[in-house]
Specification:
This protein is of the alpha/beta class. The protein folds into two domains: 2-102, Winged helix-like DNA-binding domain superfamily/Winged helix DNA-binding domain (Arc Repressor Mutant, subunit A); 116-396, Rossmann fold (3-Layer(aba) Sandwich), CATH 3.40.50.1820. It is 37% helix and 18% strand. A hairpin with a 5-residue loop joins strand 9 and strand 10. The protein is elongated and about 70 Å long.
Length: 404
């Protein structure tokens, strides 16, 4: 949705708010409240509905909602007494009463396929693992399959709205059917499973591909998903035709720590997740963003913080991080026999480039392609992204033995 209310322009696709043409920083929950009220301006929005939509299953006081509405009013020049923009229906909820001008979205690039409008055409299904965890998976695009092993902070529906992931989905589904799923603890999958370990992550992947009855397919692992993909490919060599690893590692942060300071740094990140993930103060979530996307503008860091909050709870996020931090798949990496390509940003901060070199030395015959970037999560507007997509297409269209 892209619209204008007076001098304020709201762009929910890119999570941007402009006042008099200038980008304006806004707290994510205030943006969410404002966007939801505008989107549902044809009716009264109940307080309970807003609390469920913005905070999910986290308990917050009604005063938190009142505070966000007050901040939204202030952005729109509404003093709250006259209520010319957001009207309070006492004891019930809020109604957006100001005039809203719908704006057209920028014309999409006709050469890109699919576009974010394909989010409406993605098909979401559910399957259940042997340990009785419900896993949500989705398909989008047309052509041969590409399976993406799940990784941290995903949401099958919300990822299409997020500027962090939208271009990944569009690019990966270009000319093929992209199959992805939310790992246990995240997104639309069950958030409180009994087990969150590397083996359980692999079980999620096994369950999805078995449910879809895929005999042989290329497998993509991004970041933490790389270790899951490596383990699956080692255990099921007959199923994986090509292995693609992006920003991946064989050893998690705690597993590869060699000094007390490195171990303390790994533990500190885990404490930040436990304490700051569900906080109404977004600063602790946003603090993660520069390590994932150091070259991104500040507004994208804020949107990354929103992505974190929407995908899972603080408890599940901490459990997932603790499990992935201790991962070590070096033995599995030496067992890989399928064509393998490893993409890694040369200057990235989250997973050092040395981890890519280590993976390449472990996996027999693997090809390492350095990408000129500092971002763990590549942006759509940087040259490395186009290089990655071109090399990926070449790799999947060959037997994997001849580099571009």
């Amino acid at each position: 949705m892209r619209c204008r209310v007076g001098a304020v322009e709201i762009d929910t696709d890119r999570f941007l708010l402009r006042i008099d043409g200038q980008d304006t920083r806004v707290e994510p929950q205030v943006f969410d409240v404002l966007s939801y009220l505008v989107e549902h301006r044809d009716r009264l929005v109940l307080k309970t509905e807003l609390l469920d939509e913005i905070w999910g299953d986290r308990f917050v006081s009604e005063s938190a909602l009142t505070s966000r509405v007050k901040d939204a009013r202030r952005l729109l020049g509404d003093d709250g007494r006259r209520q010319r923009v957001i009207q309070t229906v006492h004891g019930r909820g809020y109604r957006f009463v100001a005039d809203v001008e719908a704006l057209s979205s920028p014309a999409p690039d006709a050469s890109a396929a699919p576009t974010s409008s394909d989010a409406a055409r993605q098909q979401i299904h559910f399957t259940t693992t042997k340990d009785d965890v419900r896993i949500a998976y989705a398909t989008v695009g047309d052509g041969p399959p590409l399976v993406r092993a799940a990784h941290w902070i995903t949401h099958l529906e919300y990822d299409w709205q997020s500027p962090v992931w939208r271009h990944w989905l569009e690019g990966l589904a270009r000319g093929r059917t992209l199959i992805r799923y939310d790992e246990r603890g995240c997104g639309l999958s069950d958030h409180d499973p009994d087990e969150i370990t590397l083996d359980s992550f692999v079980l999620d992947l096994e369950t999805v591909v078995d449910t879809m009855e895929l005999d042989r397919f290329p497998l993509l692992g991004v970041s933490q998903g790389g270790a899951v993909a490596v383990t699956y490919a080692a255990r099921h060599p007959e199923r994986v035709s090509h292995l693609i690893l992006v920003g991946a590692y064989a050893r998690g942060r705690r597993a590869r720590a060699e000094t007390d300071d490195e171990r303390r740094a790994a533990d500190l990140q885990l404490d930040m997740v436990r304490l700051g993930w569900g906080s109404e103060d977004p600063s602790m979530r946003v603090a993660f963003a520069p390590s994932f996307m150091p070259d991104a503008p500040p507004e994208l860091w804020s949107q990354f913080g929103t992505l974190m909050r929407r995908t899972t709870s603080a408890t599940s996020a901490a459990r997932v991080m603790a499990a992935t931090s201790s991962i070590d798949v070096t033995d599995f990496a030496t067992q890989i026999r399928c064509p393998t390509v490893i993409f890694h940003a040369t200057g990235e901060l989250r997973i050092p480039f040395d981890e890519a070199r280590a993976l390449a030395s472990l996996i027999p015959g693997s090809l390492l392609i350095p990408l000129e970037s500092r971002n763990h999560l590549m942006r759509a507007d940087e040259p490395a992204w186009s290089v990655f997509l071109d090399e990926l297409d070449h790799f999947l269209n060959t037997d994997g033995s001849h580099p571009a």
